[in-house]
Amino acid sequence: MPTIAEKILNRASGQNAVAGDIVSARVDRAMSHDNAALVWKNFKSLGVDKVWDNEKIVIPIDHRVPANNIKVAEGQKAIREMVKLQGIKHYYGINTGICHQIMPEKGHVKPGWLIVGTDSHTTTYGAFGAFSTGIGATEMAGVWATGELWLRVPHTIKINVTGNLPKGSYPKDLILHIIGKLTAEGANYRAVEFYGDTMEKMSVSGRMTVSNMSMEMGAKAAIIPPDEKTFEWLRPRREGELEGAYADPDAVYEREIDFDVSDLEPQVAKPHTVDNVSPVSDVAGKHLDQVFIGSCTNGRADDFEVVAKILEGKKIHPDVRLIVGPASYEVYLEAIEKGYIQTMIKAGAVVINPGCGPCLGAHEGIMASGERGLSTTNRNFRGRMGSPDSELFLASPATAAVSAITGEITDPRGWL
Amino acid sequence: MKPEILEGRIWLITDGEGKRLDDIDTDMIFHNRWLYITDVKEMGKYAFGNTEGWEDFPEKAKEGDILVVGRNFGAGSSRQQAVDCFRALGIQAVVGESFGAIYKRNAINSGMPLVEAPGIFESGLKSGDTVKINLRTGEITSRNVGFKARPMPSVSLDIYHAGDLFAYAEKLKG
Questions:
Q1: Is the ipTM of this complex over 0.85?
Q2: Touching check for A135 and chain B: CB below 8 Å?
Q3: What is the pLDDT of residue A7?
Q4: Domains of chain A
C-alpha cells in the first residue's frame, strides 16, 4: 500500500518505512550549481579527502553565467578547481544551461530515483517520476562525503486533475491556480502526486512546469507517474532500462484534492507571493516595464513556439523591455532551427544566454524601483527581480507575449 | 552538553502595525544580491536586509536575542545563508508559528534551536520581553506569560548539543 514517495524512499534506504518514519537513504544523484562553492567549503571542513562517488555528483554552473562580478568569478574558479581535483565527471560549464533542464537533458534523471540538489526547485524531476528535493549546502557536503542523508518519509497529497485546458490556458495556469488554492504552505513537508487525464495529456515540458512550481506550495517532492511519453523523452538521453515506481492502488494519502480545468481562465500570481493568484482578467490593464519569458519553469521550445506564434509579424510595445532566456543550449538551438528566436528578435525581444540571470535578480534584466514586470518564472517575492520597490507578476508564456505587445497585463484569449 | 533552557530578549517579527508577518521568504531574510558571501561572520549584517521595516535589525540585535516569527517562516529557496545570517548575529533560537521545510532542515543541521510554537503570537508576549525557553519540554515563560510550544524532537536536540550535523555524525561514529 505504499505511495510513490514511500516506494522510492524504501528502495533507496532498503527499509520498509511508511509516512512519518525516518530513513537513511542513498541518493542516486546529487546536484549543485554555483553554490557548489559553498558546499565545497563545508566539505573541506569535514576532513574527508574524496567525494563518495565522482560519477553521481552533477555540477551545472547556471546562476550567474558568464560571471557578472569578481566575487562570482572567484567562486566559479574554485568550483572548476574542485571538479578537477575530485575528478567530478558531470560538470557543465557556462555553455550548457539551467540545472533543472540540464539534469534530465543529460540523462541524470530516471523514474524511481532519489535525487537531491542544493536548489529548492529540484522538485522539477518529479515530472519524470523521481523523488527529488532541495537541501542546504551543509547537508550536501554530508552527501558528498557519504552518499546518504536522513529523510522523514513524507505524507502524500494526491491531486487529481481532469478536463481539457481551454484555449489560452496552459500547465502554468493550472499550477498557479493550484498554488493559489492550497497556499504557500499548503504542501509543506509533504509529497504531492498528480493524476488525472489532464496530466496524462500534458507534454513532458508542461509536467516539468508543474513539478517545478509545486515547491511554491512547500512540496518536498512533486511526482507525476511516468508513462510512455516520459520514457520516450528520456530514452535517447539515458542508457539502460527505464522503469517507473508507481503507487499501489490502496496507497494511503493524507488528502485527495480534485481540480477540473475545463473552465480554467489564464491565471496570474500577483506581488509579492506566489499564492496571491487571480485570473489575469482581474488585473488586466496594468502598465508593464519589463516582460521576461524563460527559465527552468517556462523556457522550453514549446513555450517559445506559443510566444513566436503570437509575436509573428508584430512589434512589442515601445515602453516594454522583452527579455527571452532559453532554459538550455539544446532548447536554444531547437528554437533557432524552428525560427522562434528570429521571430522574437524581430518583434523586439532581447535574447540572453541560457541561465538563471533575471529570475533571481542576479543579472541580465534587473528592475528599477517603481517598475512593474511580468515573468514566466517561478517566484515573485519582494525584490526577486531587482529593486525591493519593484513589482513582479507571474504568468504563462502566452500571457507574457500578449502583454509585451500591449504594454499592459493582458488576457491572451482572443489573441490566439 | 549545551543549555536546554535558554534565556533571552525576544523580537516579534511584525509589520508596521504590529501584525504578525507570515510567509517571510528567504529572499526577504537574505537577499540574492549578497549570495556570493561564503564567510558566515560576514552574513550577519544582511539579515532581514529585504524585509520592510526590519532592514536595521542587524544593528539592533544583540547576541543572545531570540526571534519570534509567524507562519511558514523561511519559505522558498534552499539558501542556507538565511539561517547562517542569524547565527552570525548570535541569535540564540528561532521560535515560530511554523517553518518552511528546507529552512527547518537547514536550521536543525546547523545546530540552531528551532521551536515550533503555533499560537505564540496570541500568547501575550511582546517584543523586548525576556523569556525562558525549555527546548526539551517546549515551555516558554516570561514574567507574566506561560506558553506551551512543541518540544524539540530528540534528534534535533542531539544535533544541537553536538554543535551541528557534522559534529553529530562524528559522535555517532564514536
A1: yes
A2: yes
A3: 98
A4: 4-259 (3.30.499.10), 270-406 (3.30.499.10)
